């Protein structure tokens, strides 16, 4: 008795199997890609929310020192961004938050003054006693500045700091300071170009979100001329 099955039927069925396998792999690859993109978006969005949340914190808990992160200066005159930070530091000093103010920041090629020195001179003119101001004249970006401050504070037996910078810069500076071994919290400026407009606020949050993610991934700074021209 002859079989009712054709000898050519089996190969035809087998020929469909590789295409089905490729299709199944493609579906899983697409799912993995979509999942990775969604996880990335959640991570970015979550970091942006944390940048915004910490920017709103004003912690006036007493500390060993008030640390002012540097910004641009012009022949010893602080830029508007830097002046806003120094003004906030002066207010904190007058309120008795800390007995010492630390200014930090080096200088660009061709500058006569460092950011730290110009900041110290501004505070002296504002009435802060010179012997209550420490100028740490090194640091070309946030990470190097924080590390220089941590070393200077450690050498003087100080371990806690309230950090003064722009609101959106707060979370990254606090993260770096704590990584450097300091007990640190933030009381950012509420004046100056960083907070003038919605556009500047959005730009600051977006920039700091990327910079913080980069630091957490690599432990390198990502300032990209953060203070240049400010």
Automatic annotation (TrEMBL):
Q: Which residues form the DUF218 domain?
A: 64-193
| Record's keyword annotation contains Membrane | yes
Q: Name one GO cellular component term.
A: plasma membrane
Any stretches that span the bilayer, and where are they?
28-49
This protein's superkingdom? Bacteria
UniProt keyword Hydrolase, yes or no: no
Q: Which UniProt keywords apply?
A: Membrane, Transmembrane, Transmembrane helix
Which CDD domains does the UniProt record give? YdcF-like
Record's InterPro entries?
Cell_Envelope_Assoc, DUF218, Rossmann-like_a/b/a_fold
What name does this protein carry? DUF218 domain-containing protein
Q: Which organism is this entry from?
A: Nocardia mangyaensis
